[in-house]
Amino acid sequence: MENTRRxxxxxxxxxxxxxxxxxxxxxxxxxxxxxxxxxxxxxIALLTQAPSVAADNKNCGLIRYASLDLVVVGDSYLLxxxxxxxxxxxxxxNMASPFSGVTEMAVRDLSLPTKSIPFxxxxxxxxxxxxEMATVTPFAVGGLRFKSVELLVFxxxxxxxxxxDAPVVGVLGMDIFRQVDIELDAAHRKMNLFSQDHxxxxxxxxxxxxxxxxxxxxxxxxxxxxxxxxxxxxxTTLATSNATTTLRTDATRKLFNFDSHSSDVETETDPSGNTxxxxxxxxxxxxxxxxxxxxxxxxxxxxxxxxxxxxxGAASYDGCFGVHPLAxxxxxxxxxxxxxxxxxxxxxxxxxxAPR
Length: 356
Description:
The protein is 9% helix and 42% strand. The protein is mainly beta. The protein has one domain (4-350): Cathepsin D, subunit A, domain 1. The strands form 5 sheets. Strands 4, 5, 6, 7, 8, 11, 12, 13, 14 and 15 form a 10-stranded mixed beta sheet that branches. Strand 24 (275-286) and strand 25 form a beta hairpin. It starts with a strand and ends in a 5-residue tail after the last strand.
């Protein structure tokens, strides 16, 4: 397989950990203790058994473990089919989150054993702090099967989405995909999982031309990468559980000289006339890729302690955990065809309609 490689050469340093998890505010932004967070990841890593897959690849090609049909209900989540103790269910994909978790309702309905987390990890689901983990034995995502996994329990949290043929039981984060590569074609509702055992750059089989960017993993497992927005480079995450793409207003003021009160920013109101959101049309780009008039939602700066910085030419945050200036939501992700090479630490992407 020969590809014409069009790569923007940009490099990022690692600065933090857990990323925001969903539009319902399952968030690592409130991660207050990095030692506790590291212990939590260690517990999850030790208690999550390696997936039951095997690869012996001597020819550079891709070895596929699973091919999954995603479900989208209205303007809701990208739902991934899973099996929990032999029961079919769905979990909302969030590639910006280092953690996977289940709702309290799922714990009750599936009779999952739980145990307390013996320290304050500062992970929140809505306004409630996560204090328990559930053990799932066995667990499967398509052909990727685990003997046992540990999932955070999200208290007082549920999903409005109803996938009709199976319940939505939680959020699927990057911890589950630590040992595999991920191909995501949201426009066609497909997700494939591949072996990490392949030759570098030999992954984009669906198009002759592609772009790529280096990715960095935080200590809890989330990844981020550089992306150009109106010509400025920003550290970026794939917030696949968010409907819209978001940008922090401290970054807009410093990099682009506007904020939510600027005259050229669109304001959206609810039926009562209250301000619901602020938007601005901007251009996302990479080599060989341009998304014009992307509708970027402006959101508040992160919590106290974060300050805008720059690493290797890309805007970033220091002084806090898990916050990145730009988060690509489903409105942009659905325009891209992505391959996350987790071991190679590269993100490959093309337009969703790239010619084969």
